[in-house]
Design brief:
Helices cover 24% and strands 25% of the residues. It has 248 residues and is of the alpha+beta class. The chain has 2 domains: 102 residues, 2-Layer Sandwich (Alpha-Beta Plaits); 133 residues, Pseudouridine synthase I, catalytic domain, C-terminal subdomain (Alpha-Beta Plaits, 2-Layer Sandwich). The N and C termini lie close together (11 Å).
Length: 248
């Protein structure tokens, strides 16, 4: 049987989702927990990769296993007893034999959190930026993103992707209790894309760039034309959607 695991993690202590040769990753810790409990190597295929320090409120990964007796029923509880507190399993769901956590995802949503106040708390969960931002201009720029599909200008320079096309369906800044939150939804994202977009929109909010500049930046397909990449700790993967027919 094939299963989807739904889980969350705080990325502060990990070098991203994907296994690394000389660093601890979320994938490594979860696969080790599964192997320990089920007495068999269990490779996990996740909905995507998150970079070092990036968090996930909702992530999915698929795996295959033939459970015995009450193993399936108890797995979520057992994993949560075994895993560190910064990784939490929410559910285990049976899916069709061809269901794929990465390729079947219809959309992914990220949030980026900015605090405009100095605080001793939760600094690993937001980016502190105390300069005043032009909220209206940043939202006007966010609307521009939905007019384009090729986002090579926001992609990490050295990447092996075959296409830079992404369909952004939502992009908006809101005022939060701590400062600002940027929410963006698309069918897929390029490496470093959200952090580069946020950095570029911040530069527009600081009047270092204009909304009109954003059209030229996207058309240039040149990473050096866009703004800086904001720190990882403010970024959260918050939602992934799938076709309902995948779930049994």
């Amino acid at each position: 049987m094939r299963f989807f695991l739904e889980f969350s993690y705080a990325g502060t202590n990990y070098h991203g989702w994907q296994r690394q040769p000389n660093a601890v990753s979320v994938q490594e810790v979860m696969e080790h927990a599964l192997e320990t409990l089920l007495k068999s190597p269990i490779p996990l295929t996740a909905a995507g990769r998150t970079d070092t320090g990036v968090h996930a409120r909702q992530m999915f990964a698929h795996f295959e296993y033939d459970f015995k007796d009450d193993e399936e029923e108890n797995l979520v509880h057992q994993l949560n007893q075994f895993l560190p507190q910064d990784i939490v399993i929410h559910s285990l769901k049976r899916v069709t034999s061809e269901a794929h956590a990465r390729f079947d995802a219809l959309s992914r949503t990220y949030e980026y959190h900015i605090s405009n106040k100095r605080t001793p708390f939760e600094n690993e969960l937001h980016y502190e930026l105390r300069q005043k931002l032009n909220f209206e201009e940043m939202n006007a720029a966010a609307e521009v993103l939905k007019q384009y599909e090729d986002f090579e200008c926001f992609s990490k320079s050295k990447t092996d992707v075959k296409t830079f096309l992404c369909q952004i369906t939502h992009a908006q800044w809101t005022i939060s209790e701590k400062g600002y939150t940027f929410t963006i939804t698309a069918n897929r994202f390029l490496r470093n894309m959200v952090r580069a977009i946020v950095g570029t929109l911040i530069e527009i909010g600081l009047k270092k760039k204009t909304v009109e500049d954003l059209h030229q930046i996207i058309s240039s397909k040149n990473r050096s034309s866009a703004g800086y990449s904001v720190p990882a700790q403010g970024l959260f993967l918050t939602k992934i959607t799938y076709p309902k027919h995948l779930f049994l």
